[in-house]
Structures are given as structure tokens and as C-alpha cells.
């Protein structure tokens, strides 16, 4: 039997907490709920819960100790245990997002929360944890020792190797993954945000961290190197890199890493811009190809329809003339009456023909315009 996942839940809204608890219980979770941080502190929580929580749901605004402080306490008490903390709040300003990220939160939901969205968030966080644990197990002790023993000289060699490799990458994803791998050679953990039409987020462990992404966006306009506790942001025009574990207690190593990371990152802006232009050109070429094919089909369809319409119109006119000529004979009309009637008919036919020909000329003009546009599209590909 699969063991129930344990959720530690802080929420002072009775109706909302009752709804969440009922729904999460139905989904197979064991929920421990507190309307506020207990007087007995973390000891009371650990005594109440049979095991450490698999997830934490945390309201931002709580009576007494607020959500941010509780997040700090949980991260400190459970050490580096990989417990996802998800804030559930009525609003999350940019400052709230930064504070939540700094406290160690992984993600957030804005009230009112759709229960299906909550379920998806928890499943996504669980999948990320499992993938992270597999990756950590795959990293051998020998690799870790090699990273720790890496000298400044070999790190400079890694920088040169990376820049040589930059010229061989074919797309942005490949470039960013190569950069993440290069940074791991310095025994550092990193995240990258590339700014474009829609920002692209990359992380060395492959996890999605919305709070971290928002934090990178919030700090992108700071100075080139911006230190914030043990995190350091390296900001450039088209991307920002976050080093999540700078050795701030080792001033010498810290200074060397700042210099070496600048050597590693300088010049990547040009690569990113070039790849963005190349990708945009590919998309434009694909769009123009589709447009050209569509226009070609439209021109052919218009031409075919015009031929059919012209043939049909001509057939109708000729048939009408023949029928009228034969019918007039049987009407025994006086010659003057016959001429008058025929004149009216001929006049109507001429006017109808003129209208049809005018329509055909307009269609030809439209076709000529479409054909010219088609030629322009083909020549610009």
C-alpha cells in the first residue's frame, strides 16, 4: 500500500481550510492543519506529525507569526530537506514574491484557488522532487570530489572550453544547458532567465521555480553583479544568471568566483542575440512560406471559379436568346412590337454583361495584386 503524503497546512480562514482539507483528504493526502503557528513551536508540530511533511501549504497573512517567518522557521528546523513550500495568498506583490523566495518558498497560488490547480501544483512539485533525488543519486562520489578539488587553472580552462563550444550550438536551449553545465564545474548551483518575447527559465536541476523566475525578473535591472545574502545575480541585457550558493564566508574564493564568472558570462549576450535573430528569421520564413502557399491556392481558386462563372454566364445568355427568338415567333406579334420587345431584352443582356465584365475586371485586379504579393513573398524568402 502506498504511504500517504503528509501536508502541513497553515490557514486561518475556517471555510477555506475545511474545503482544502476535505479535498486533499479525498486525493489521498494526510493533512495536519494549524490556523496559526502553534504556541509550542516546531517541537509541537514534530510531535503532532508522525514524519516530516512532504509538502507545506502556507498562508501569507496569519495571526501572530506570519507566513514568511513560519517559512524561515520551517527551513531552519528541517535543514536542507527537500520539502516544497507553497504559499497560498490573496495577493502576491513583487516584494512579497522576493520575501517568499528569500524565506525558501518554492511556489505560490493566488486566492481564490481552484482545487484542480492546487492538485496539479502538488503533483508537479512531487515530480520535481523525485527527479532531483534521482539526479543526486546518479552523481557519484568521485564526481563530487573532482568538483571540490578543481583548481583555478582548470576553471579557467573550463571557461575557454565553454566559449569555444558557444560557436557550435544551434539553438538557445543548447547554449543555456551548456552554460549551466559549465557553472556546475565551479561547484555552484545556478538558474538562468533569458529575456525575449516570452522569458525562458533554466535551472541546473531542471526544476520549474516560479518564485525564482519572478525574483530574477525583479532583480534584472540592478547593477551588473548584485549580491543578496548567499545569492549573486549577474545581469546582462538579454539574460540574468542567479548563483544560489555563493561561498560568502570565504572572501578569497568569493572574489575569485566573481571574476571567473564574469569571464564566463561576458560575450554570451552576443550569442543569445544572434540565436534570437536566427530563430526569429526561421519563424518569419516559415510564416511567409505558409502565407505564400495560402495566397497561391487562393489565386488558383479565384481563377478557376472565374472560368466556371464566365462559362456558366455565357451559356445562360445564349440559351435565353435562343428561347426568346423561338418564343417570339409563336406570339404572333406585330413587327414593331417584336422590335420593341427585342430591344428591351438586348438592352437588359448588355447591362447584365457589362455588370459581369466589370466584376471580372475587379476580380482580375484582385488576382494581379495577390499574384504580386505572392511574388514578393517568394522573393523575400
Task: Write a concise keyword list for the protein shown above.
Rossmann fold, 62% helix, five-stranded antiparallel sheet, 381 residues, five-stranded parallel sheet, 10 strands, alpha/beta, 13% strand
* CATH topology name of the largest domain: Rossmann fold
CATH architecture type of the largest domain:
3-Layer(aba) Sandwich
Compute the number of helices: 12
CATH class bucket of the largest domain? Alpha Beta
Strand content: 5-15%
Number of domains: 3
Tell me the major beta sheet.
Answer: 5 strands, parallel
Please, what is the average pLDDT?
Answer: 82
Number of strands: 10
**How far from one another are the termini?**
60 Å
Radius of gyration: 36 Å
Q: Supply the CATH superfamily name of the largest domain.
A: Response regulator
Order of helices and strands: EHEHEHEHEHHHHEEHEEEHHH
User: Spatial order of the strands in the main sheet?
Assistant: 2-1-3-4-5
Give unreliable regions as ranges.
140-150
The assigned structural class equals alpha/beta
**What would you call the shape?**
elongated
Helix content: 55-70%
Description:
The chain is α/β, with parallel strands linked by helices and 381 residues long. It is 62% helix and 13% strand. The chain has three domains: 5-138, Rossmann fold, CATH 3.40.50.2300; 141-266, Beta-Lactamase (2-Layer Sandwich); 287-380. β3, α3 and β4 (85-89) form a beta-alpha-beta unit. The radius of gyration is 36 Å and the shape is elongated. The model is unreliable at 140-150 (pLDDT under 50).
Amino acid at each position: 500500500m502506498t504511504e500517504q503524503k503528509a501536508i502541513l497546512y497553515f490557514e486561518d480562514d475556517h471555510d477555506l481550510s475545511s474545503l482544502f482539507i476535505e479535498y486533499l483528504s479525498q486525493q489521498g493526502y494526510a493533512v495536519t492543519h494549524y490556523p496559526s503557528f502553534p504556541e509550542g513551536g516546531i517541537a509541537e508540530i514534530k510531535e503532532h506529525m508522525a514524519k516530516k511533511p512532504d509538502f507545506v501549504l502556507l498562508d501569507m497573512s496569519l495571526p501572530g507569526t506570519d507566513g514568511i517567518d513560519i517559512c524561515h522557521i520551517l527551513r531552519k528546523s528541517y535543514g536542507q530537506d527537500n520539502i516544497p513550500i507553497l504559499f497560498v495568498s490573496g495577493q502576491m506583490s513583487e516584494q512579497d514574491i522576493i520575501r517568499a523566495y528569500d524565506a525558501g518558498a518554492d511556489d505560490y497560488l493566488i486566492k481564490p484557488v481552484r482545487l484542480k490547480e492546487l492538485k496539479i501544483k502538488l503533483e508537479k512539485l512531487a515530480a520535481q522532487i523525485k527527479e532531483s533525488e534521482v539526479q543526486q543519486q546518479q552523481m557519484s562520489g568521485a564526481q563530487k570530489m573532482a568538483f571540490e578539488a578543481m583548481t583555478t587553472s582548470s576553471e579557467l580552462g573550463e571557461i575557454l572550453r565553454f566559449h569555444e563550444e558557444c560557436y557550435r550550438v544551434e539553438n538557445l536551449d543548447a547554449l543555456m544547458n551548456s552554460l549551466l553545465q559549465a557553472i556546475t564545474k565551479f561547484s555552484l548551483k545556478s538558474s538562468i532567465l533569458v529575456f525575449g518575447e516570452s522569458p525562458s527559465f533554466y535551472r541546473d536541476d531542471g526544476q520549474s521555480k516560479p518564485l525564482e523566475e519572478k525574483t530574477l525578473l525583479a532583480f534584472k535591472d540592478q547593477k551588473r553583479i548584485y549580491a543578496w545574502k548567499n545569492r549573486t545575480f549577474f545581469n546582462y541585457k538579454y539574460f540574468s544568471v542567479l548563483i544560489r550558493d555563493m561561498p560568502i564566508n570565504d572572501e578569497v574564493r568569493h572574489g575569485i568566483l566573481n571574476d571567473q564568472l564574469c569571464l564566463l558570462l561576458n560575450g554570451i549576450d552576443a550569442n543569445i542575440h544572434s540565436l534570437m535573430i536566427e530563430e526569429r528569421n526561421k519563424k518569419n520564413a516559415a510564416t511567409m512560406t505558409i502565407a505564400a502557399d495560402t495566397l497561391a491556392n487562393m489565386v488558383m481558386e479565384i481563377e478557376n471559379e472565374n472560368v466556371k462563372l464566365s462559362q456558366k454566364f455565357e451559356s445562360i445568355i445564349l440559351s435565353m436568346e435562343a428561347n426568346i427568338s423561338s418564343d417570339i415567333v409563336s406570339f404572333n406579334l406585330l413587327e414593331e412590337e417584336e422590335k420593341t420587345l427585342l430591344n428591351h431584352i438586348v438592352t437588359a443582356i448588355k447591362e447584365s454583361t457589362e455588370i459581369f465584365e466589370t466584376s471580372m475586371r475587379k476580380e482580375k485586379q484582385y488576382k494581379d495584386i495577390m499574384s504580386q504579393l505572392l511574388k514578393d513573398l517568394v522573393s523575400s524568402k
